[in-house]
Amino acid sequence: LLIRGPQGIGKLALARALANALLCESPGPDGAACGTCVACGWTGQGNHPDFRMLEPPALSVPEDDAAAADKRERGAAQIPVEQARALSELISVSSHRGGARIVLIHPAESLNVHAANALLKNLEEPPPRMYFLLVSHRWHHLLPTIKSRCQQLALPLPPAAVAGAWLRRQGVPDAELALAQAGGAPLMAAAFDDDYWKQRGEFLDAISRKGFDALALAERLRDQPPGRVLGWLQRWAFDLALHAATGKVGYNPDRTKALAAASGNVGLLGAVRFLRHVVRLQRVVHHPLNPRLFLEDLLLGYAALLKGERPIQAF
Ligand SMILES: [Zn+2]
Fold it and tell me: d(Cα 314, Cα 299) in Å, to the nearest integer?
């Protein structure tokens, strides 16, 4: 089963709930895991013998570990073939508990080509009661040979009212703004912390100032992950284009005034061109040769746009 949809809407949580339900030894009338049987005890502790999780090594390190964050940005972002090969033990012996066996793969697009090939035969002809749950937000990057062997479950963004109500119950202070910033994905909205909002606010203040100094700003941002800064600027560029075309903004409703001013300045064509430039940079942001130069290029490009010049395209 390929569970696909936008990032930050709870696909992994759904896959885990489904895995727990399949492994549970006395599921409720609706099929959900009971939470109290032996199997549920094991899944709760993450050590059920009939369950395997395949994910890139970088995902299993803590978010706040700087060295690990560096590793996460630079590599270890793929599921290595050894993980896929290690499944043969799970597949060749029969189920420990006589029930289902589950392999959860997240995110499935991080399977490298060797790992994917090692899985193909089992995806095609899984042993009885063996389930492969693949979770993906960039499913167009999946190998066609993988995709064609899966049943696909496409999950949409939840309606804004439902997501907003859920965020308020989680205690998110400005649920509407957080949801807008996350493009409507509630789990992503809930994950933005105080530091995120503070840094984003300072960044948007800086680029909204007339004649802002791109190099000084790049210097101030040197400790921020380049991907985060690029994300802010991508949302900003999208809103510039949207405002130029429709008079509305999407991601940054708290900055409508500054967006209107900048959008009038750069125009629809300039905004779209810059957005395309930023989107292209997304492909290299996780392995920039030099993060400092990357940020300088990005911000010089935006400063040039405000002056009516075409963005620099060094990368
Ligand atoms: Zn149970």
Answer: 12
Half-sphere exposure of 119 (CA within 13 A, CB side): 30
Please tell me the distance between residue 27's alpha carbon and the centre of ligand 1 in angstroms: 6
Question: Quick check: 61 pLDDT over 60?
Answer: no
Residue 304 sits at the vertex; the CA angle it makes with 299 and 309, to the nearest 5 degrees, is 150
Cα 60 to averaged position of ligand 1 atoms, centre (Å):
26
CA of 10 to the centre of ligand 1 (A): 22
Ligand 1 centre and the CA of 45: distance in Å?
13
Distance between Cα 24 and ligand 1 center (Å): 4
> pLDDT digit string (tens) for 213-247?
999 999 999 888 888 999 999 999 999 999 999 99
Torsion of CA 82, 86, 91, 93, to 10 degrees: 160
Q: What is the DSSP letter of 76?
A: -
Residue 44: C-alpha distances to residues 13, 70, 87, 306 (Å): 13, 30, 21, 53
* Omega before 158 within 30 of 0, i.e. cis: no
> Token pair 């990357």 is at which residue?
294
* Ligand 1 centroid, distance to 42 Cα (angstroms): 9
Beta bridge partners of 102: 51, 131
Q: How many other C-beta atoms are found inside a 10 Å radius of the C-beta of residue 75?
A: 13
Element (H, E) at 2: strand 2-4
How many Å lie between the centroid of ligand 1 and the Cα of residue 29? 12
φ, ψ of residue 283 to 5 degrees: the values are -70, -25
The half-sphere exposure of 123 on its side-chain side, counting CA atoms within 13 A, is 23
Task: Give the bridge partners for 89, in sequence order.
Answer: none
Q: pLDDT of 271-309, one tens digit each? A: 999 999 999 888 887 776 788 888 999 999 999 998 877
The residues, ordered by sequence, that sit 6+ positions from 195 with a Cβ below 8 Å of its Cβ are none
